[in-house]
Amino acid sequence: MKTGDPGILTTTLEKALEWGRSNSLWPLTFGLACCAIEMMAVQASKVDISRFGSEIFRNSPRQSDLMIVSGTVTKKMAPRVKRLYDEMPYPKYVIAMGVCVIQGGPYVEGYSVVLGVDRVIPVDVYVPGCPPTPEALTYGIITLQKKIRGEATR
Amino acid sequence: MMEFQPGEERGKDGRRIIKVRKEDLIGTLTKLKAEGYIHLSLITGVDRKDFIEVVYHLHSFERNEYISVKTVTYNSEVPSVTSLWKSADWEEREEYDLVGIRFIGHPNLKRMFLPENWVGHPLRKDYDLKNVQYINVDEEGEDYATFDPGDGW
Asked: Which of A6, A33, A44, A152 is the most buried (most CB within 10 A)?
């Protein structure tokens, strides 16, 4: 679990920080392929992740702390994905959305697709599906919140 | 082995398919363009293992009709049609990049999508997928291909 350097903080304050971080996850505006359409639906009014504190999709990686990698990561895009991840401030979290991002999906025998974005950047929560429904991604975000608070079972 | 016979036939959707030798390609396309097929909508390359087939899809706005012109090459070289259609420039670069067809007379035959030092042409049947190549970015922001998965991967 990535919660930054705890230092000499007491457990109670750490719990407060985790609570705060988990309830204000600001995602990066970052869509790579068709999964991005479902990610936009997550932000829209029907399945509204503002209810869980993921208020706005920030336009700069320096203002965001959650990267939803939504869509096929090609080999050309992979260095850029890594660069965007490096520009985000700690603590930062990554959700891999869709089977293309998890292990290559239908392009697993292709020449141009990265077989899993976790070969480039570390991933916290995997959301399978092609594409995952907005509800599934919302569940992924809630799972990430539980993980930040140390409540996730696995 | 498939044989290539010049001539004309009809496709499954009734579309005219004109098959020509590559020596007659420029002449045929010039004649068709004068007949009204002024729009080059697509160029595709097909690897048939024994030879490479190049298909030119033309459209006539007057007749509202699509036709295909097919030619084959055994040494991966085809005359360029950039003198007839400017839009053929990028289409032929794409074919060169992915199928490896060299268009003779093309003004700027460079790779379109892949980095310059990528080995092989991925849509060829004999492309070896086991030799995985990766792409990295150098200090100037230019892509380069590498076989070494380290260095940022």
From this structure: A33
User: A63 and A104 in contact (C-beta within 8 Å)?
Assistant: no
Q: Is residue A25 within 8 Å of A140, Cβ to Cβ?
A: no
What is residue B2's three-state secondary structure?
Answer: coil
The DSSP symbol for A132 reads P
Which among B137, B142, B144 is the top mutation candidate for probing chain A, defined by the most A β-carbons within 10 Å of its own β-carbon? B137
**What angle (nearest 5°) sits at the alpha carbon of residue B109, between those of residues B108 and B110?**
100
Looking up tokens 């974005």 gives A117
CB contact under 8 A, B135 and A111: no
d(CA B78, CA B74): 10
Residues in chain B within 8 Å Cβ distance of A116: none
Mean pLDDT of chain B: 87
H-type alpha helices, B8-104: 25-35, 88-98
- Find residues 10-39 of chain A whose CB sits inside 8 Å of chain B: none
- Kindly state the average pLDDT of the residues A21-29: 87
Q: Which chain A residues contact residue B143 at CB under 8 A?
A: 76
Chain B residues closer than 8 Å to A84 by CB: none
Which two three-digit tokens encode residue A67? 């990267």
Percent above pLDDT 70 for chain A: 91
Q: For the whole model, what pTM was predicted? A: 0.80
For residue B30, the model assigns a pLDDT of: 92
For B15-65, the DSSP string reads: -EEEE--GGGHHHHHHHHHHHT--EEEEEEEEE-SSSEEEEEEEEETTTTE
**CB A69 within 8 Å of CB A84:** no
